[in-house]
Amino acid sequence: MKKSAGFYIEILAAIVGIVSIVMYGSSMVTTQKTYVFLVAAVVVALAGALLAPKMPICNWAAPVAAALAAAGIGWSVTVMADPIGYVISGLYTFADIQSWVIFVAVAGVAWLLYLVASFAGAAKEA
Amino acid sequence: MKKGLMRGLAGIMASLCAICLVATSYAPSRAAFINTRLGTSSFELVETGDASQDTYYYKSEFESLGDLVQANVDLATQISAEGSVLLKNQNAALPLDAASEGVTLWGHNCLFPSKGGMIGSSAAANTDAGQDDPGIPDALMSRGFNVNMDMVGFYASEEAFAYTRQTFFPGAGLLPAFTPAYEPPQFYMTGEIPASMYTDDILKTADGTAAVCVITRDSSEAADYAPTMFCATDGDAFERPLALSQYEKDMIELAKQHSTKVIVLINADNPMELEDLKNDADIDAILWVGAPGEYGFYGVADVLAGNANPSGRLPDTYAINSTSSPAMMNFGLYMYSNNSQTGAAAGDVPQLTEANKGDWFVVENEGIYNGYKYYETRYEDEMLGQGNATATEGSSTGAAWSYANEISYPFGFGLSYTTFTNKLDSVDLTLGETGTATVTVTNTGTVAGKNSVELFVQAPYTAGGIEKSAIQLVGFGKTQILEPGASETITIDIDPALMASYDETAVKADGTQGAWTLDAGDYYFSVGTDAHTALNDILAVKAGLDDTKLIKVNEESDIDPARVQVWNLAATDIETYSKNVQNAFQEANINNLIPDTIEYTTRTDWTKGWTTIDTLTPTADMMVGLTDSNYEITENGDGVTWGADNGLTFIQMLDIDDEGKIVGVTPFEDEKWDQLVQQMTLDEAVQFIECGGDDLENIDSVMLPRTYMNDGPVGFAFDQVAGYKTRWTKADASAPTYVSDQPEAAYSMAVFPTEPVVAATLNKELVEREGQLMGEEALYAKESTIIAPGTNLHRTPYCARNHEYYSEDSVIVAIMTETVTRGMQSKGLLAQAKHFAFNHQELNRSGISTFLTEQAGRENELRGFQLAMSHNTTASIMTAFNRIGTVFVGAHSGVLEQIARNEWGYLGGMVTDMVNGADYMNWRDTVAGGGGIMLGNTPNWLNTNIGTMTDAKDAIAKDTFFQQQMQTGIKHWIYSLAQSNAANGLSETTVMKKVTPWWMTALYAGDAAFAILTLLFLYLGLKSKKKA
C-alpha cells in the first residue's frame, strides 16, 4: 500500500509531540504520568506510520496516539491546578505558568495532528 | 473515506474518554474544593436519634444577616474613629463645622485611598450585590459636609485618571512579587498629579473652603518598600517612598493658596516622614487615619466633623528620617556568597540551587532596640551623657546625634480636641501575680472625649549588663467619654513578666541556661502621654532633669512627676517567670555560627551596630539547613496504633450541660484524646496533614466533618470566601444561620480597619467586639477558622505588610492579639495567629535566613505571640515562610516545641503558610519538627526529592517517631476544633454518611458514554474495513 498524506501528518505530529515533551521539562510543576503518556503517544504514532504501509491495522495508531496525548495533557493539568488558581487569585503572575501554557499549546497542536492523521490514515487502504 | 471517518471519530471519542478518566481519577482528591464551589457535599450528617437535642451550640446574637452587616458597619466606623490619631491641630482647626465650612478634597488619591492592603488584607465590597462602598467624598457627605464636587470631578477626569497608581488595579501602587527576587523593589507609584494640571477655574472652586489633603501610601502582602525606590508616577519624584513626593508637596502648596485652612490626612499604615508638615505653620492639622477598612472613612468623617473626639495613639514611631533606626542597616536583599545566581562554591561549601530557596539572609543587628526602644533609649543616654549617645553614628544630620533631630512624633503620641491630666495614683505589684496600676484621668478641656492611657516602665539597667530599653509599655487602658471637668479612675493590669529581660547566660537552679530576669532595683512607672513624655517624666524623677535640659518634640507635651510611681525589687529574680525555660534558638545568632560577624546595637556604646552585613559565606553546618535538612523517614520503634475501635466520637469530647450548652472540653491531658486519634486510619492522618491547611479535612472515623479555614486580618477575604453563602449547601438549610438568597448573602466580609488602626484605638472593648463580630461572620458563613490576626512586629517602616500587624511594640501586639482572639473564641471561631515567627520582611520571605539574638527574639517578636498562645485564646497558629537561622521556622522544634509547647503551654494546632513547592518547606521536616499540618497541596513536590506524603505512606508506617509526631499534631487540631463551631449540628447520635455528588456521577457517566462511543466507532471502522 502507498503512503498517504496522513503518513506525513502523523510523522509531523510525532515531531511536534517530541517538542512538547522537551518543553514540558520547563513547566513549573511536572508529573511523570504526563511524560509516560506523551512518550507513548509519540512511539505509537511513529510505529503506526512506519508500519501502516505493510500492516493496515496500524492506521489505527493515530487515534490511539491522540488518546494518549490527551491523557498526558490532562495529567499535566492536574498538577498545575494550584498554580493556575494562584494566578487567578493574584498570588502568582502569568509568567510563572507561561512555560506550561506554551507546552499545552504545543502538545495541543500535536494532539490535533494526531486526530487529522486519524482521519487521513497513514497508508491508503484498498 | 468511511473508514477514515470512523477512525477519526474514534480518535476524538477516545481522547475525550481519556480526559474524562483523568478527571474521574483526579477529582476525588479535590472533592472538597469542587464541593464548596458547587454547593455540594461528599458526605451528609444523618441524625439517628430522636433529634430532640439542639445541636447548635454556638448561636448568633443577631436575628438576621442584615443586622450583623449593620453591626459591622457601626463597629468598623467606631474603630476607625477611635483609631484616628490627631498629630497636629493648631488654632483648633479641627473639628470642622460641617454646616458652615465647605470642604475641598485635595490630592488625586482622595478617589483611590488605601482602605486595606493588597492580597491577604484587601478591604472589599461587593457593589454588584448592593454593598456599601463609601469613598472619602461619600463619607464626608454622609456627615453633612458640603464637598467641592468640581474638584472631585476634576480628579475623576480621564486626564487625571492617567496618573492613577495602578500596578495590578486602580489604587495599587506597589508591585507584589511571589517569586524569588534578586533585585530590591524598584518603584512605587504615588498616583499624584502635577500642579500644572490644575486650571485656574478648578482652583477657584476651592476658594473659601477648608482643604482636606489626602496623602496615601499602599500596603501589600509580598511587597516591601525600599529607600532606593524611584517614583513611577510620570514626572513625580521623592527622596524616599515614605517621604512626600514633589507632586504631593505642590498639591499642598496649592491647597494653602486656595483654602481657609489646611488639614492633611495621612492614609498610610507605614510611618511616613512628616517633619515638614509638622513644622509648616500653614498646615493647620494633621490626622493619621491609616488604612481604615471598607467603612472606615465614615469614622474619619466623624472625627473631622467633631462627632467623635480623637483618642487614638500612634502604634509606631514617626522618625524625621524613616531610615534612621539601626534595623534599617539590614533590611532588604542580602545574598550568600554561594547563592544560586551570581555566587560560587567556596572551598568545601557548594553553590546553592534555586530549589534550595536559600539564597538570602538578613541579620537583625538592632538586637532588642526596635522602634521606640532604640530612639528613646539612646535619648536617655544622651540626657545622662553615657554610652557615646551623641556620637555621629546613626545621626540623620551627620552631626552629633540628638533626639531633637530624629523624631517627629514618638510612639504612643496622639492629641484630642480637649485636654486631659493623668495621675498615676498607685502601682501594686507582686511577682508571680497580676499587678495593677490605678490612674485618675481628668478632662481639663472644654470638649467631651475619651482618653487613652499608656503605662510605661523603666527597669533598672546596669552598664554592661543585660541590654534594656529605657522605656517599655506594659499596659494600657481607656476611659469612657468624660465630660469637661469630669474624672475617672481606671485600673490597668500589669503582668510583671512584661518587665523581665531575657538573659541568655543565666543559669537557673535546675542547671538549665537562659532565664527571664528581673534585676533588683527601682522600677519607674509612668503614664506620660507617649513613650517620650513618659521617659521625660521618669528622667525628671530619677535624675532630677527639668525642661531646660529635657527635649520635648511637641509643644503639647509636658513633664509631670505626678505621672510617675516607683516600685522596688529587693533581689534579682531569675526563676519566677522561667518555668521550663531554656535557650532554644542560639543558632539563630550569626556570631554563634560565624564568630565576630557583627556587633549588635548596644547601649554601652551607640557607635556600634551600624554595619550592613551584605554577604555571608555559610559554613558546612549552615549548609545542612540551607540544603538537605529533610528528615529522613526510617524504620524505628514499635509502631503506633491506627484504626483502633475505641468507640469514641469527636462530639463526645465536649462537655455539654443539660441545656445543651458547651461548658468545656475533655482536658488535653486526658488519654481519651490519644484514643480518639488512634481511631483514625493512617490514610486519614495523611490526608489531614497533607491537605488540611486549605481547609480542615473531615475525619470519618471520629465523626469530624470538614471545616473551612480562610484569611484574614480584616475579615474573611473576599477572593477566598466570595460572600456568606459560599460554604453552605442545601443540606444545611435547617441551620439557624443558613443563608442563601438574602441580598446580603453575597456581601464581602473583608471590611474591618487594618491592624495598626485597631491598635491605635487602645480600646480592648472594641477589639474584643471585633473578634466577636468576626465570630458571628463565621457562623453566617459556615467558617470555623480565620487566618488572623497578624501578630508579627513592625521591625522597620519599610515592610509593606505592616498593615497586617499591629505595632512596633510587642506588648501592644500581645494584648491586641489576646483580646481579639478571645472575642473570636467566645463565638466558636478558631483564630490562627500568624506568622510564627520572625517574618519581618516580604522580600524573599520564602526561605530567607533570619539571624537574630535569642534575647531580641523573645522580648520582641515572640512576646507578641506569647499572651494569646499561653492563654490558648488563639486555637491555632500559622508558621512563617522564613528560616530561623538556617532552619525552616515551621520545622524548628526549638520555637515550636520548646518555647510554644513546653514553656507557654500552648495547646492549639499549627499549620504552615502556603506551600509553594519549596523543598525547605516540606512535610517531613514540618511533622518531625512539631509544625503540625501543611497549607497547600503536595503535587508541588512530585518532581522533587521530597515526594508526596501519600506516596511515602508505606515508609511512614514503619517510622514510629514520625507517626507519633503526626498523631500529636492532629490531636492538637482536634482539641482546638472541639472548642469551635465545628461542633454545630453534631450530636452523639449523628452519623456521617458518604454520598456521591452529582458532578462525580456526571464524570462516571462521561467515562461510560465516551468509552461506548469509542468502541462503536472502532467497530464501525473495523467492520467497514472487512467489507472493503
Tell me the series of helices and strands of chain A, N- to C-terminal: HHHH
What ranges of chain A have pLDDT less than 50 throughout 5 or more consecutive residues?
A: none
Residue share in helix of chain B:
25-40%
Rg of chain B (CA only):
30 Å
Count of individual helical segments of chain B: 25
Compute the separation of the termini of chain A in Å.
8 Å
As for the number of domains of chain B, it is 4
**How far is it from the N-terminal to the C-terminal residue of chain B, by CA?**
11 Å
3D architecture notes:
The complex is a heterodimer of chains A (126) and B (1028). The model of chain A has no long low-confidence stretch (mean pLDDT 91). Chain A has helices spanning 5-24, 32-51, 61-89, 94-120. Chain A is mainly alpha-helical and 126 residues long. Chain A is built from four helices and no strands. Chain A has one domain (5-118). Chain B is an alpha/beta fold and 1028 residues long. Chain B folds into four domains: 2-25 and 996-1027; 52-63 and 638-994, Glycoside hydrolase, family 3, N-terminal domain (TIM Barrel); 85-311, Rossmann fold; 372-615, Sandwich (Immunoglobulin-like), CATH 2.60.40. Helix content of chain B is 28%, strand content 16%. Chain B is built from 25 helices and 36 strands. Chain B has a seven-stranded mixed beta sheet. In chain B, strand 32 and strand 33 (887-888) form a beta hairpin. Chain B is globular, with a radius of gyration of 30 Å. Chain B starts with a helix and ends with a helix. The model of chain B has no long low-confidence stretch (mean pLDDT 94). At the A-B interface, helix 3 and helix 4 of A face helix 1 and helix 25 of B.
Note the main attributes of this structure.
heterodimer; A: 126 residues; mainly alpha; 76% helix; elongated; B: 1028 residues; alpha/beta; TIM Barrel; Rossmann fold; seven-stranded mixed β-sheet; six-stranded mixed β-sheet; 25 helices; 28% helix; 16% strand
